[in-house]
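Office hours follow-up: a student asked to see two folded examples consecutively, so here they are.
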Amino acid sequence: MDKEEYTNILNSLINRPESEVVEFKRAEKNFDFDDLGKYFSALSNEVNLRGLEFAWLIFGYNEKKHLVAGTSYKNGEGALNKLKHDFAQHTTDGQTFREIVPIEVEGKCVLMFKIPASPRNIVMKWKGIAYGRDGESLKPLNQSKQDEIRHQTPEPDWSAEIVPNATIDDLDELALATAKVMYKKVHASTIPAGEIDEWTTEEFLSHSEMMRDGKLTRAAILLLGKPLSIQKIHPTNAQITWGWKDKDGEVVDYEHYSIPYILTVDKIFSKIRNKTMRELPGGTLFPDTMKQYEDYSIREALHNCIAHQDYTLEGRITVVENEGFLYYSNRGSFIPKTVEYVLKEKGPQKEYRNTCLTHGMVHFNMIDTVGRGIPKLFKEQRRRFFPMPEYEIDEKGQTVSVTIYGIASDDAYTDLLKSNPTLSLMECLWLDAVRTHKPITKEAAKHLKDKKLIEGRAPRYNIALSIARNVQQVGRYTKETGLNKKALIKLVLQLAVNAGEVGFKRADALDVLEDSLLVSMTKTQKLDYVSNMLRTMMAEGLLEKNGSGRAWRITTKGRSEIE
């Protein structure tokens, strides 16, 4: 959706009265974080009760005077992304804004917060308290409304739907045999293998939840169906595409795979070039050789894609083998909302998109439901001193992807993990985010600072100097943190001396300082930093404007600083 479409939405919201699912706030400069959370909870609950998909919270519009006020709240994409990330730490199931869209109206910025409805039968809370609307008032959600949400029936399970014209003949014999072998393995402690062997095919499918009331489910077709039986769940695109890209990102080879998925996984597994590694960057870590990727990780990531794919979107699952990493993607939203939530949560996941399909995969030893899947991916990477799996969750809930690294792409990170063997899984995740200049929460930053693992200020943290010294990465540290302010000032003064009476321009200063500033800064941030620095140096009497007023030159005081 482009900015023009959002402008049209804003105009339609303005032209109708403020309601329980639309809220306008001036918020010209600031807005209390907790109040924002309360509005999120209230609007999310109210939009659920009205059977709508989302609500809107608008900053920068004066609803009483019917005029655009403009807002500078959380200015910039980085600040808005961090807000969404921080927000998810305090809401039910890690929910956050679907989108935060800045648009320009009458030359002023207006922020549009798109707030999703709370999931069916789940009350949205902010810091443990549920809020609602009563006209224009914001107050705790009353008990009757909470009960109404909690008593909602869950979303129907697409994978459990019966395929009316499907029969046993639509299932692949090898897939059925493989499923039965796996079923025996999973249930070996509770059901004798001989008893399972005596079951008819219909009984086996019923026990494994692939058949209900004597009819095959969509899950049965996906996991066990012959390729031609895919027509019986049309228009679902039950397809997995494997691709191979070279070091330049060019596609070298690809192949499309269809059902039965219980066999397809092995075919894709055999395609992946899982090299044997004898020595890792930074030195040998283990006495024996090891593969580039853990077998479990290759399969688990693909199994997760199959289990959590939103098949109603009619997209395909993708597995791409690159130089040094594997990339997986599937269609649909990330049910747990955040990876941090998964790593913190103990026990099974509370909600599944395809419950019937998931249960079948559990019966066939493809996945488990005790919450070990994603955490084990992270643990395997931690054990091998490799970068953490990297999840990308589409804001619109259309795609989830994960990258699994097969080589230690960063010696500094590898050395850091080797020198700190007691790091927890969450600490590894946070440090990996710092390493790749991604936002972390205030709580995470405080935790890492208290352990003297990082330093700096939000949003630009870096690995602590003491750690850099221990792992002999001071050069990397210096590049990451940039030169200190005094060194930068001396560079500018030397530039001014070289420029003479003609003076230098801001672009010249940026050219001199750019490589000495934080590598995590964007071009715009570096330009703003240089502008502020030149103004400060003028205020301190080190620089002055030249005769034309369009360039800077050094003062007598400035010369004394570098002599």
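And the second, which I mentioned at the end of office hours:
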Amino acid sequence: MAATHKLNNERINVVHYYRYSSHGQQEQSIEGQARDCRAYSERMGYTVVGEYIDRALSAKTDARPEFRRMISDASKKQFQYVIVWKLDRFARNRFDSAIHKATLKKYGVKVLSVTENIADTPDGILLEGILESMAEHYSANLAENIRRGQRESILKGAHVGGVAPFGFKSVKEGDKLRLVADETNAPIIKYVFDEYAKGVPKKQIMEALTARGLLNSKGNTLSVSCLQNALRNKKYIGVYMYRGEQVEGACDALIDEETFNKVQEMLDSRSHGKNAKRVRQEYLLRGKVFCGHCGSPLTGESGAGKHGKVYFYYTCSERKKRHACDKKNEKKDFLEWYVVEQTIEHILSADRIADISARVVAEYDKNFNDTRIKEYERQVKKLDGEVNTLVDSILTMPKKAHAKIGEKIEVLETQKADIELNLVSLRISNGHRFTKEQIAAWIKNFCRGDELDADFQRRIIDLFINCVYVYDNKIVLYYNVEGGKQVSYIEPCSGADGLAPDNDEDLRVAACSDSEYSSP
């Protein structure tokens, strides 16, 4: 379906999500969305590993089962991007979008739109970033409270739930659960450790277990990864690991420490060479950076130097595929740092922050207010009336018309369910009010960090960068703020190891802003 693009010898996997609401007369069809998304993935060199489709054929589909399955599948970390035709296919409103994007971000997955660079307006994208930050903060606090309770239980020797590892069983001791040896399966775990310590290969051990008829909890044959995880599990020596903290004696020991430590040394020695070659790089500007010469996307590339050191670049996809562009490669580390450095310098003036804060508050008030709530309530009431009228008409209409009336009722119920979900999200969002001072404080705190730190760079790029056009001697940045165009001339960074670009021109940095925001 799509050409395989490799990033440091690893392909970029993506999934497509298509959604169609039957009441939207001008919406792109599922087939049209699929055609555009597939062409986009082909152009970008992505490997499409799945497609999720929600068709609004009845009110039941508004639960969006395929969307929920996609979010669940993201936890398996088998794809890096969700490709949508438009961002409103992903979520019905900013609040929902922020919640779902925050969930995907935990699994290292981003959402890309085929037809849009940004969502609606520059102020809107900043608002969504703040909502996303709120969602992450709420989720983090909730998770921290849960972890605190789990830690206390574990310190007391309790099993905090979940499936007991093979070889254990969970039994109740007093008012808590505890992991104790399973008389049937504990000897199998001892056999596995003893055999591996003798030098027997994992594959051979697995074959022996399969010959005995041993299956996993789902009734399938054991996998190498299952065996690998078992050999690394410290619970088998009675140690419960929780967020880097060891709790000894929290469960029965099935293996002696001498055997366990010998197995760990063998695993480390056999995996060191292989893992040393696997270095995964995240290209933070992917999907937002373009060639200034031909307009094609810049994609990730790597290459080894004379002494074996690996270097990472952004390269013009048109030059890479067809040799039809003369744009030089750009060093990944330098370009990402430079974009962030220019953004901090351009965005964090007192006047700029005050202006952004005022616009975000205005955007929030526009998106979440009592007027919109009343409008949604009016629409729901109107749809109820139309459905009741159609139901009453069935009594007087001939039987051959009943099927069409039923289809119309389903369409109206779908519209109603969609609006009611919007109404719930809107009421939640309307309960949070922000002042300009609060937004300004959030922006300042958000933009405080080390410009060479990848997490900090990711935050700045995700929130503020709309797109970047890179020439050999200048960069044009478009920000998600009004007056957000900036032209910067690249200055070589002497003495900054790994950051300096491959040119020796004596260029100076000069930044300027247009009076109005303009999208490329």
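Two things to take away from it. The first strand starts at residue 6 and ends at 7. The CA atoms of residues 317 and 323 lie 9 Å apart.
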